[in-house]
Predict the 3D structure of the following.
Amino acid sequence: MDKTLIVITGPTGVGKTATAIELAQRLHCDIINADSRQIYRGIPICTAAPTPEELAAARHHFVAFKELDESYSAAQFETDVMALLPSLWQQGDYAVMCGGSMLYVDAVCRGIDQLPDISPEVRAAVKEKLQREGLESLVEELERLDPQYAATIDHKNTSRVCHGVEICRQAGVPYSTLRTGRAKERDFKIVKIALNIEREQLFERINRRVDRMVEAGLEQEARSVYHLRHLNSLNTVGMKEMFAIFDGTMDRHTAIERMKKNTRVYAKKQLTWYRRDPEITWVTPDEAISTVLSKIDTAKN
């Protein structure tokens, strides 16, 4: 337990990347990306991925390492991070994990229950049903196979609904019966820091960031992957609104304003999720570095 994973999380747009880089530089350690969209290549503007300059400032892992058509999950992220950490511990006593994807952060900090691997046949069958009958049909199947799990998820979240149906079909039992909710023991310390600022200030930062993304070429980036719009990796804020422009169902101004609103809604969901975690210390970005250094100094003593 002489090694420490420092988690920098919080709502989108709050300044996690800059904080993580400064901390990694001070502690001479690497950064583990915990953003479920930044893992994909080809959409750096939409996902607000670290810039080349930021990537050069500190060594990052799990950034732009998957193709858009490759599947990935929080469970696989847990496996990959746990496989990476021993090599990072050989370099030093610290590693920084930065990102706002709630399930990814929990996967490493608490662990994910062992679930059956989904066969290509099951995955293809669920996908085919989705395309043929629509999401509502899969929601109805999930409510029949596992009403307990179905009651806990957003029925408009295609990924969650499909995943639940896949697990039920593959395991032959309700998904909820496989979820223990017990945290796994880790052989390293975990320091969790969540950044936050005043709600009005956060929302203004989000609005400005969307404007910068548009100026940086978001529309062109979205057009370059428009032919892949059916992929789950592109079912994300930013791409959905741009695709609506291309489909002719939304004008450009409305799409940009909707993107700002949807990002603000996502930030509120992140805040709600993380406030349930008693292990998190909440700080402003300006307080983050000193708070982390104080915590690890206290742990040493």
